[in-house]
Design goal:
Layout: H1 3-6, E1 70-71, E2 74-79, E3 85-91, E4 109-115, E5 122-124, E6 127-128, E7 133-137, E8 144-152, E9 160-168, E10 183-186, E11 189-194, E12 202-211, E13 214-215, E14 228-233, E15 239-242, E16 258-264, E17 269-279, E18 282-292
Antiparallel strand pairs: 1-2, 2-3, 3-7, 4-5, 4-8, 6-7, 8-9, 10-11, 11-12, 12-13, 12-16, 14-15, 14-17, 17-18
The chain binds copper (II) ion.
Length: 323
């Protein structure tokens, strides 16, 4: 993975997102493919500090990933699935389901989900059948409006992340975003964040893993790296998938305790970071809220709700699914 694909096309603009909401079991309505015009540079080897695609005219060329359900002719379409399963297809510029994908980070498809309040993050890997339908045990673990991100590379094309809203019926009290912290615990591990993201610039973020007060120096490769970092922007869930500096086995990248990422956030505001790392033959997800830009600004919180929170509504729920 070069630096271009992890940081392509960030923008400063705001967009209104009109995500379609789908009731589970009522997935028959096709999503009309939108004829997005995006011109990818053929040499697309932008460095991490590249600020975008210059004066290109396509509006989506400047957007972060995951904001659009259809881009460059590819469309993220839900498919009917039995209870407990999530299924979808990616249709291509010809309208037919895409069946040929490049392997990126060990997988042809990465499916990331989070609720609109940024809780409930999961990162799973569906399996495709011959007709181009991807299926996975549903990562939508509880009621709410979820954002699903399909992160993939069509064969012979540039990487793409499409986003789709999926509604799971039931009552949910949206939770305010947790306040920013620089240390968090998950599954008995303490993960400490150093570095702060600066809008529009490449910032180094280092995440250090310890357990029982001891640095963890034997992190296990997960999807070809010692850590995977996803950042979601509060407000529109713009999706940034950031990969670390260095790779396992390159002779210079230690297996912990620190994993360093070069991240570029597209604007000031609050972001939720989700670090996937593997240790003890299990994948763990550490979550942080960070503020980019004016760090004295209050974190916008979800509107108050009169509905009692459900036990599954929390952030950082144990038992994140990884497959
Ligand atoms: Cu993945």
């Amino acid at each position: 993975m070069n630096t271009a694909t992890k940081l392509s096309g960030f923008a400063l603009g705001l967009v209104a997102v009109f995500g379609a909401a789908y009731g589970i079991g009522n997935l028959a309505d096709p999503v009309a493919p939108a004829a997005e015009t995006r011109h990818d540079d053929s040499d697309s080897d932008h460095g991490a500090g590249d600020t975008g695609h210059g004066d290109e005219s396509g509006a989506s060329a400047h957007l972060p990933g995951g904001l659009l359900v259809s881009e460059r002719g590819y469309t993220f379409q839900p498919a009917a699935a039995p209870a407990g399963q999530f299924a979808f297809r990616i249709t291509g510029p010809d309208g037919a389901p895409v069946t040929r994908f490049e392997v990126a980070h060990d997988k042809r498809m990465h499916l990331i989900v989070a609720r609109r309040d940024l809780s409930g993050f999961r990162h799973v890997h569906p399996e495709m059948t011959g007709d181009g339908t991807w299926r996975v045990a549903s990562p939508l673990h509880g009621p709410g409006v979820w954002r699903a991100f399909a992160d993939f590379t069509p064969e012979g094309a540039e990487p793409l992340t499409l986003g789709l809203d999926v509604t799971v019926p039931g009552e949910l009290a949206a939770r305010p975003l947790p306040t920013p912290v620089t240390s968090t615990t998950v599954d008995g591990y303490t993960v400490t964040l150093t570095g702060t993201p600066e809008p529009g610039r490449t910032s180094r973020l280092t995440l250090s893993v310890s357990r029982d007060g001891q640095p963890v120096t034997d992190l296990q490769p997960y999807l070809g790296a010692y850590g995977h970092l996803v950042a979601l922007r509060q407000g529109d869930l713009a999706y940034l998938h950031v990969h670390p500096e260095g790779m396992p086995g390159d002779g210079r990248t230690p297996a912990g305790p620190a994993v360093t990422f070069a991240a570029e956030v597209p604007s000031a505001g609050a972001y939720r970071l989700y670090l996937d790392f593997r240790h003890g033959d299990a994948v763990h997800t550490a979550e942080f809220t960070v503020l980019a830009g004016d760090r004295t600004a209050p974190v916008p919180t979800a509107p108050a709700s009169t509905t009692a929170p459900t036990p599954d509504a929390g952030h950082g729920t144990p038992g994140h699914g990884h497959s």
